[in-house]
Amino acid sequence: MDSLGVYVHIPFCVQKCVYCDFLSGPATRQRHQEYVEALKREIERESAEYAEFEVKTIFFGGGTPSILEAEEIGGILDCIREHYRLDPNAEISMELNPKTAAGDKLTELRKAGINRLSIGLQSADNAELKLLGRIHTYEDFCRTYYQAREAGFRNINIDLMSGLPGQHMESWVQTLKNVLALQPEHISAYSLIIEEGTRLYDRLDEYPPIPDEEEDRQMYQETKRILAEYGYSRYEISNYAKKGYECRHNMIYWQRGVEHIADYVGFGLGAASTVKKKRWRNTSDMEQYLHAFCPEKHFGRREPGQQDSQRLSAAEKNRKEDIGFQPQSNRNLSKEESGKQTIKEDVEELSINDCMAEYMFLGLRMMCGVSKAEFAESFSKSMDEVYGAVLHQWIEQGMLIQEGGSIRLTDAGIDVSNVVLAEFLL
Amino acid sequence: MSKIDQSRIRNFCIVAHIDHGKSTLADRIIEKTGLLTSREMQDQILDNMELERERGITIKAQTVRTVYKAQDGNEYIFNLIDTPGHVDFNYEVSRALAACDGAILVVDAAQGIEAQTLANVYLALDHDLDVFPVINKIDLPSARPDWVKNEIEDVIGIEAQDAPLISAKNGVGIEEVLEAIVRKIPAPKGSIDNPLQALIFDSVYDSYKGVIVFCRIMEGKVSKGTKIKMMATGATADVVEVGYFGAGQFIPCDELSAGMVGYLTASIKNVKDTAVGDTVTDAENPCSEPLPGYKKVQSMVYCGLYPADGAKYPDLRDALEKLQLNDASLFYEPETSVALGFGFRCGFLGLLHLEIIQERLEREYNLDLVTTAPGVIYKVHKTNGEIIELTNPSNLPDPSEIDYMEEPIVNAEIMVTTEFIGSIMELCQERRGRYLGMEYVEETRALLKYELPLNEIIYDFFDALKSRSRGYASFDYDIKGYEQSELVKLDILINKEEVDALSFIVHKQSAYERGRKMCEKLKDEIPRHLFEIPIQAAVGGKVIARETVKAMRKDVLAKCYGGDITRKKKLLEKQKEGKKRMRQIGNVEIPQKAFMSVLKLDNDR
Asked: Rounded to an integer, what distance in angstroms lies between the CA atom of residue B61 and that of residue B278?
């Protein structure tokens, strides 16, 4: 029996944060309901493909999945239980915005089967939160956190961000200390990347300065030191956990050799999948997605291939605008054999070279690194045969280190990991 | 038309400042003389090369023969010899003019006389050509034909009151030009009974016919089987074919005789044996004297050309070989650079010629090139009395072995409206110019005369001139000779390693300024690495300027969103792609465009 990780994308939020370039945006309640209905139909329709799989992890990501009602989340989970084989010990995570889930909702979510929460705090400094366009305060977060504990959540991650506009070492350390006092099981500490197309990118000069590279790196180093002191070990570039609480779902993405944990399938708008050396992503066009699964309900009726922006009624246009994100092109639109409209795009069969490259550049994100033995077993070639020169170069420059039969990034290598990892593409 | 009446031949060319409409008028003349129907006309027939048409300039002299039935009822043969418009090709212009008996001077009705108008018209008058003016672009709202007429008479001193007023673009006034050609351009002279004396004004290589020699028969005649001799190169050959020029094609005929313009092919393999300006004569009945004015074409500007991909070196060699077949003024020899690997040191007539060759290599031969800083030929006088002609800065001998150095100087004429005189003089001063004088051609325009070192004008002088005069200044020069000068070699060290491809020769006084700008520019061009990279400019081992490319401290994709590997992979691919376009010097990756950036040091002004 093969293992499967399931990702469920909820592309809605209350308000877009200034740094966010994910596929998400505000929408009406009605649109939430339509989307949940479509999601359940997608999950059901795809189930035939996964008869031989056992679901080991489920991850509700977004957007802000907690914007949905607990019963809607429960409904999606029930749908998975009904049509898939779900491991009773599966890790079932959900991302949560502190402002969107209070006491009873948390209890219901726990009852529905969610057993891991990932709470987006980002900063314990209210001024920093405001600048980011977050809708909550640090106090909102604390309340939610305690209520989550009361509701029975025993596995909680807190998302944090360093390198924020106006942030400095002291405020970052204060954020860390506040969070550590709560003793979450897991902490994700990302360094802010200013992505093109975000409000922050467009109006950077209106914000207080972001820490320079030097300070940013000091924050990173300090994070590692402080979290280690409190018993969290870094197991991935941006992820820290108490022993045994590493996020199993995320590790599926990073470990791609023969000993890989599972394949993964993504449901919902824009979700990415990799199953049996085949990769694709769902359409990013909301209209197309809804129409594919609920043609009878969804009145933005379109023939396949029709460009959405052209033939929408005024009402439909307004609704589109309230989704708050732009649909992408709907290339590769075609009919599946069953006659149903497919929403899979960028379908790609992974070659052996793709697999080797991914094994390396994803595996190296993990602090345990990549194993030479596993590489040889996975690809019938030795790692040195394929990457000898690259490994030698980076080891010599102090970016990689070899220990036992494994290769991993050094601290210096982590800081510039894009440069290091790019060399592993074949 | 086997027997052609010499009195019915008109050999002429059109001279003009760039963009005044020379090629367009040529097209109209060909069109109106009827050898071609309008349908066959491709715009600007004489500009054959795609590149010429795109840039709107004429690179190689082109020739076409047409037949015109004049108002007097007679048919006249027109041999129109189109000449290159750019100063780089001055020698070709002068040879083409020598093949003519008269010239049409085209002047833009709005702009009036420009520097090249003067340069070209003087060149034509030097060759004793009868010149008559034509005022073009009268359709422009800003046209001032009367004012231009007066200017022509005042400045050049030729009659202009009856100059045809035309719009070549719209085909207005062309008849008048054709009649003026018949009336004002003299018929050729020369006797068919004298020994053969023919001027080579161009040659091209054709893979079927071999070298095709373009010539003007001054005396005597030549036909198939004539054994000919090139008087300067001494090469002999048997004529295989003679003929004249249709539009874009060669039309064989029985014989070329005195006064005619045409081509000949012979058993000649190498274009170098048919040097432009040489005299062709009958080997068995030679003329006593060659035609005057022949000089060997000398490359003025040199640079290194390297394939971006080292494996393409043989392709580059083949391409240069092929280009040289058609362009005897292109010089190349293999050289090796530590930084760039195997390539060629190439010599050009000027910077435009360099750019054209570079573009043709890239376009027609699909080569990706790295060009080193262009330089001129310096004469290095060594203490042991030896004189070296230095084309590659890397070959400069040790300073202890150098007695002194000389650099080429040009006589430059710059035509500029009076309001910009100050800023243009300043520019010339900055470029080590020596002021010779100034003449007012009219109240608001002056001709500035300077002596300038050639190496100060080959980079971006023309651009600077244009930007400081809002596009109004025009410029022409010719080589004066060599003068002693305080020159030094400026070396660039990247991460402590000298990069030979970035070295260049510069005047001692400009060394610091140039070095500083180079370092600044390179700092911007070289991406950050995982370590700090010092960039230094040095003269004789002494560092005179320094910049630092800081080490990259952060380049990490913090979040790997929802298993979206594709996105992450694309990011890494982009990173890797960028590296491919780099040159590795020691540990440092240098983008190819960094090597060219040194050409554009003055752009930020």
From this structure: 16
Binary contact (A348, B556; C-beta < 8 A):
no
Strands of A25-102 (E only): list them: 53-62, 85-96
pLDDT tens profile B459-477: 778 878 888 887 778 888 8
Q: Establish if A187 touches chain B: CB-CB under 8 angstroms.
A: no
Quick check: A287 and A319 in contact, CB under 8 A? Answer: no
Q: A312 CA to chain B: closest CA distance, Å?
A: 30
* Banded model confidence at residue B581, pLDDT cuts 50, 70, 90: low
The amino acid present at A48, given as its one-letter code, is A
Q: Give me the interface pTM, i.e. the ipTM.
A: 0.78
Segment B236-253, tens digit of pLDDT: 999 999 998 876 678 888
**A156 touches A187 (CB < 8 A):** no
Whether A414 and chain B come into contact, CB under 8 Å, resolves to yes
Distance from CA of B577 to the nearest CA of A (A): 9
Chain A partners within 8 Å of B552 (Cβ)? 416, 419
Side-chain-side CA neighbours of B432 within 13 Å: the count stands at: 20
- Supply the DSSP string of B518-554, one letter for each residue: HHHHHHHHSPP-SS-EEEEEEETTEEEEEEEEPPP--
Q: Which residues contact A379 (CB under 8 A, 6 or more apart)?
A: A352, A355, A356, A359, A386
For residue B530, list chain A residues with Cβ-Cβ distance below 8 A.
397, 399, 412, 416, 419
Query: What is d(CA A161, CA B511) in angstroms, rounded to the nearest whole number?
Result: 49
Q: List CB contacts of A70: < 8 A, sequence separation 6 or more.
A: A105, A108, A109, A112
Closest CA to B574 of B560, B594, B597, B557: B557
Mean pLDDT across A230-234: 94
Q: What's the pLDDT tens digit per position in A294-333?
A: 887 665 544 444 444 333 333 343 444 444 444 444 444 4
Q: Which residue has the tokens 């877009």?
A: A16
Domains of chain A: 2-264 (3.20.20.70), 352-422 (1.10.10.920)
Q: pLDDT by residue (tens digit) across B169-216?
A: 999 999 999 999 999 999 999 999 999 999 998 888 777 788 889 999
Please answer yes or no on whether A421 and B572 come within 8 Å at the CB atom. Answer: yes
- As a whole number of angstroms, the distance between CA B127 and CA B29 comes to 23
Q: Which residues of B touch A357 (CB under 8 A)?
A: 569
pLDDT digits (tens, 9 = 90+) for B3-44: 568 899 999 999 888 778 888 888 888 888 866 434 444 544
Host H or E run for residue B326: helix B313-326
Amino acid at B75: E
> Which pair of tokens denotes residue B294?
């022949």
- Is A162 touching B (CB cutoff 8 A)? no
> pTM of the entire structure?
0.64
Nearest to B496, CA basis, from B452, B541, B453: B541
Nearest to B563 by CA among A422, A84, A61: A61
CB distance B552–A281 less than 8 Å? no
Quote the strand ranges of A253-363, DSSP E: 263-267, 272-275, 278-282, 344-349
Q: By the CB < 8 Å criterion, does A296 face chain B? A: no
For residue A46, give the 3-state DSSP assignment. helix
Q: Do A417 and B555 touch (CB under 8 A)?
A: yes
B552 contacts chain A (CB < 8 A): yes
Place of tokens 């400042």: B17
**Chain CA centroid to CA B509, Å:** 29
Residue whose pair of structure tokens reads 């593409």 in the numeric block: A425
What gap in Å lies between CA B131 and CA B431, rounded to an integer? 35
**The pLDDT of residue A331:** 40
Residues making up chain A, counted from first to last: 426
The helix/strand/coil state of B28 is helix
Q: How far is Cα B341 from Cα B584, in angstroms, rounded to an integer?
A: 11
